[in-house]
Design brief:
The complex is a heterodimer of chains A (about 220) and B (about 400). Chain A has helices at about 50-55, 80-90, 105-115, 125-130, 135-140, 150-160, 180-195, 205-210; strands at about 5-15, 25-35, 40, 65-70, 70-75, 90-95, 165-170, 200, 215-220, 220-224. By secondary structure, chain A is α/β, with parallel strands linked by helices. The longest helix of chain A has 16 residues, at about 180-195. Mean pLDDT of chain B is about 85; it is low at about 70-85. The chains are: A alpha/beta (about 220), B alpha+beta (about 400). The interface of A and B includes residues 87, 94, 96, 103 and 163 of A. Bound molecules: adenosine-5'-triphosphate and magnesium ion.
Amino acid sequence: MDDQPLIEVRDVTKVYPLKSGDVTALDSISLSIQKGDFVAIMGPSGSGKSTLLNQLGCLDRPTSGDLLIAGRNTREMDDHELTGLRLNTIGYIFQKFNLIPLLSAYENVEYPYLMKHRQEDENGHISRLLSKVGIDAALAQHKPPELSGGQQQRVAIARALVNDPQILLCDEPTGNLDSITGGQIMKMIRTLNEQGRTVLMVTHDPTVAACARRNVIIKDGRIT
Amino acid sequence: MRGKDIIFRLAVRSIRLHFLRSTLAVLGIVIGVVAIATMGMMGANMTLSVTEQLSEMGNVLVVTESREGGGGGMSGPGGPSGGSDDDDFIPEEQFKDIERIASKYGTVYALYSESDTIEVGDEERRATIYGLDQDVIPEILTLASGAFPKSTSSVLIGPSLAGRLDLTLGSKIDIGDSDEGATTTVRVVGIIEERGMSMDLNTDSAIIGSEKLFTGIYGGEGEYRQVNIILDDINEAGNVSDEIEEQMNKKEEQVSVQDSSRMLENITETLGTMTTFVMAIAGISLLVAAVSIFNVMMMSVTERIREIGILRSIGTQKGEVRKMFIYESAILGGLGAVIGAVASLSIGWVVVLAMVGSTDYFFAPASLMYVPFGMAIGFVTCVMSGVYPAWSASNLDPIEALRAE
Ligand SMILES: Nc1ncnc2c1ncn2[C@@H]1O[C@H](COP(=O)(O)OP(=O)(O)OP(=O)(O)O)[C@@H](O)[C@H]1O
Ligand SMILES: [Mg+2]
């Protein structure tokens, strides 16, 4: 039972049909990730890293092949169940942050919390989380357009962590940060991994990748 | 319980954040509700006040000489048939017949009338002179001041005539043109209350005297202008009218009966048609409002595609996105309906006052019901125009939505 992988990718292909010709972003990828694993995904720009993460994050469905999460094939899950996985089990830090511009930093982090717990946070959990990623109470009242890239990234990290997900998907979590803050964030992610969470992280930075237990390199949609 | 309102509260927040757009949508609904409610109330008030005015005289049947029949019971040899009014009259025997048929249903009386020149001091005018049975006058007319005439030289006058010629009790009037011959001098002993226009008697600008006075001046005794029947029960109008026509027009068309309740029906029907027409116009304005709300809601979806993509990608269910948008339109619709209701009450009051001239019936249920009616239609329209945008928002593919700029 224990040797069953938490995430299993079997022959996953993703084709984007375009007028100018189909783009094969992922080409028969197979990958299995154990619970508690820490995987760094590397590869040149346009190689399909974000596409792979989108499949793992249940945001997208593969053109062919299977994705199993905790032994269950996502092909057999309906939209409602996949959405539930995104809310409760998977934390996703997007490459482009994807914060809601009209809401304050605090409200952005609060949103998934409200959707999961159906009530407001009365224990200060969100504020603690925000200060842990280096966003203080005053900054938390700002809206994303009023924050720097690095600050937005930290808000996005807090949002991904707010529902205490089993799986953490990070698309270049330190890409916009200086080396000191980047180091702090990496330390956080490592601690989360040490506490038992499974982490998949896309990065270009070999020193960041060195933190991971395993490196996967993608080129033209294939694992090399 | 508390969980349920999270989506609702998120919808409220979203309305606040998109304040301008929300205000525009609410404004659209307000206009629609005000249009429906105000137009409806105007129609209802018009119908109510006209019906009330008409029903006061709705219980009268007027019998006149039939134009299609012979000229007044073969009066003059080869008289011009259907030419001059003077030749149309109801002879005494026919009056007796009508009385026999109709007296059990109410008051039946015959009247003489003539239009003539009258003189008061130096002033000359034309007025209608009625000749009525002295015993009948108190039954059908109400005095504003003075007393009913007891002699052939005393008369009643209508309030408009009294006002125009400065006549008071005791004033003297000469009937007839002094240049053309003898005049008859009469004395005003009473002034009648205003009655308005009606089919049977138009007394406001008239002189009312006894039959003897009338035939003394114009002759033609027993040749009545018309016979009026004041019914005790307005619902008998049709029966009585049928009965008279059946019995008296058997051989030849002698009389024609005008039933004012039928006229009333016609007017009410016309008013109803008008109200429907006015409501149709209001409906069009609501349609315009609906289109603008649909547009606002659709814009709201298009503008927020990325936001919806984010919501979906961090675990918001399709149904919750749909619910959020429906809530939004319901809140906007509710707000619009309430503001619209308040506005309709004040605007409606002004419009009714201006168009109908009286707000006596403004608070009648038949009038006020258009406020909740307008509110309901406005609310439903708003929610309906939110359904499609909500549905299309919830069906956006998260990845596609996230890529939108
Ligand atoms: N929605 C889409 N429609 C069409 N083609 C797409 C779409 N998304 C990605 N692609 C294509 O798929 C390929 C992989 O894209 P992807 O975003 O996964 O690259 P990446 O490895 O994340 O690159 P980067 O390091 O620059 O973020 C690219 O060639 C890209 O053009
Ligand atoms: Mg990428």
